[in-house]
Structures are given as structure tokens and as C-alpha cells.
Amino acid sequence: MSATREDFREILRLVRPGARVLDVGCGEGELLELLTREKRIDGQGLEISQAGVAACLAKGLAVVQGDGDRDLDYFPARSFDYAILSKTLQQMRDPRHVLSDLLRIAEQAIVSVPNFGHWRMRMFLLARGRMPETRALPDPWWRTANIHLCTLRDFTDLCRDLDLRIDACSALTTGKPARPMNPDGVLENWRAETGIFLLSRRAAGAPEAVPQNLFGEVELPKPEAEADAPKPKRKRKAKAETSGELF
């Protein structure tokens, strides 16, 4: 697995074994191949480039050529458990529609986005007055495929606008291990180079999601009946005073 795609390692943690997975913008199938090998998923890819499709088919992966901006509309509702969009949302012409469609097609969506609010981006703009070129976004403005860059705050605002739940989230910074993050934390919009989000639709009347990290260390909330049950009172041991009376 490529060392430059640490987000794949975290996505691997989120997907349950044997799940139905759609990888939108799957490239040459690196993530699909990893998920198939490690989690035995029932995977399918959607890739716009003919070279990417050919590379996937050569690996024995089920991939079709298509445009995520237009062709997601043809997938039936709830046909997958997970729809994955890894560092691709910013390349879409209509990110809002694509994000909404992912959660029509699948029960949950896994989305990773580069954070244009990272401190290196801010310093580059401040010091040089030019579009940044960093390890997370290495291409010059005239060659990049990115057309709708956003910050973590922009992304979480869009999720709320679409009434989506953030079920889990993690931050990635080049050269450092992934770590859980609070998507509403003020400093995270400066610190994280990339954000990874597990999203779902907010069901009517359902309680708010408890944000999880991606490392299996989540303390789940207690069932409501258990939480509301009165705690048994401890029996107090009788103490005798010098007079011999009990109280």
C-alpha cells in the first residue's frame, strides 16, 4: 500500500467485513484491492478515466467507467452499505449533490477531504500571496483537478445543511499517525491536513450520534433503560457508640 495514502488505512478500519462497497473515483483500484483482500468486501468501483478502469480490470476488480457528477443518479437507493469518496469531493462540479447522492445509494458514506484551512495553506497565502502547493495539495493551480477546495469548517457546515450525521471522524497530517478529532474544534481547522468522516442520514426522531474515533476505542452510551434505572442504595453498616445504641 502506498505510504502517501494513509487515509486508506483509516478507511480500512471503518468498513466491516463482507460489506457492499462502492468506491467513487477509485483510480487504479488500490483501495478496492485493499478492502477486498483485508475485509472480503463485495466491492464495485466507478472511475472516469479509461486507464484507471483498465488497471482495475487487470486486477480482477469490478469497475465501470463513469462520472461521479452524473452517473451516481443511476444507482438504486440503498444498494450498498458504504459509498467511499476518498480525496475526490473537491474535484466534483456539484459537491453538494454528490454528497447527498452518496447517502441515497448507501447506508453510510466515508469521505476524506484535504483541508484548505490548514496552517501551511494560510501561511503560504499570507507570505507569498499565491495559491499554496503543499504535500497534501502538491499541484499548481493551473494543473490541479481540484475545483471546489474547502476547509473542515466548510465541510461540516455542508453536512449540517444536508442534515447528515458525523458518526466518526479522524485527522491526518503528513508524517504523523491518524488521530481522532472533534470536527467542531476550533484548532482542528488549523491542524489537520486531511479530514476523514463517516457519515449517515439523520433519521427523524433519532438521537444525536456519539462521535467516534477510528481506532476502536469508543465508549458507547449505555442503553436508555440502564441509564435511567435507579442505582441500588448501599447498606450502611451499623455503628455502635460507646453507649451501645445503634443509629
Shape: globular
Rg value: 23 Å
What is the H-and-E element order? HEHEHEEHEHHEEHEH
Overall pLDDT, averaged? 80
Hey, roughly how much beta strand do the residues contain?
15-25%
**Main beta-sheet annotation:** 8 strands, mixed
| Uncertain spans | 212-229, 234-247
End-to-end distance: 71 Å
- Oligomeric nature of the chains: single chain
Structural category? alpha/beta
Helicity range: 25-40%
Q: What strand line-up does the widest sheet have? A: 3-2-1-4-5-8-6-7
Number of separate helices = 8
Number of strands: 8
Tell me about this structure.
- With 247 residues, the chain is of the alpha/beta class.
- The chain is 28% helix and 20% strand.
- The protein has eight helices and eight strands; from the N terminus they run H-E-H-E-H-E-E-H-E-H-H-E-E-H-E-H.
- An eight-stranded mixed sheet has the order 3-2-1-4-5-8-6-7, sandwiched between helices.
- A hairpin with a 6-residue loop joins strand 6 and strand 7.
- It starts with 5 loop residues before the first helix and ends in a 19-residue tail after the last helix.
- 36% of the residues are buried.
What keyword list fits this structure?
28% helix; 20% strand; eight-stranded mixed β-sheet; single chain; disordered C terminus; globular; alpha/beta; 247 residues
Short description:
The chain has 247 residues and is α/β, with parallel strands linked by helices.
